[in-house]
Fold:
Amino acid sequence: MPDILYEDSAILVANKPPGMPAQADKTGDESLLQWAETHCLQSLHPVHRLDRPAGGVLLLAKTPAAMTELQRQFQHHLVEKEYLAVVSALPPEPEGTLVHFLQKKAGQNRAIASPEELPDTERADLHYRLLGSSQRYHLLLIRLITGRHHQIRAQLAAIGCPIKGDVKYGARRGNRDRSIHLHAWRLAFEHPGSGEWMQMEAPVPGEDPVWTALSENLPK
Structure:
């Protein structure tokens, strides 16, 4: 089940489990939004996306005014977004910035990353840093500079480092629960009411052996 990381009269911040949809989808499975609305006994407003197979911080607004302000911050790149990703191949450098041009394939629900700008593409930028390794896997800290559909998944796949379990983007095997090892670890933003700078961090799944093996490398 989700964990509530923070809640007040304007916002709710939850730690979404991997595999749970953020919003209702064609499967009919309970979404994080539905779960949170049941908890709050009111309608809530999503302000950003988090892929179903991934887990981590998800921010919901309780009022239309809060939603409008938070969406403004996202649109103007005022929100800081950091992710943790587990990959089986080392990136070419221990730290770097990736720039690609993404083309969204709506029918396939995936994005294609190209090193050059092509028609119908959007520029995608992210910064990564290698945090540590286990015997089989490597942990990356990802800071999103832009926010595109499947951006992290597509860009890491483009450099030969698909995320563990992400068969859609080239992983050799899927995870049994159909999750991927991508975790929205930290979200920082201005509170839509008070203007206070908020930093929300979501613990990684505690019972997952891969996350456990890499736990000593997690950011402090």
The longest helix spans residues 64-75. The longest strand covers residues 122-133. The chain has one domain: 3-217.
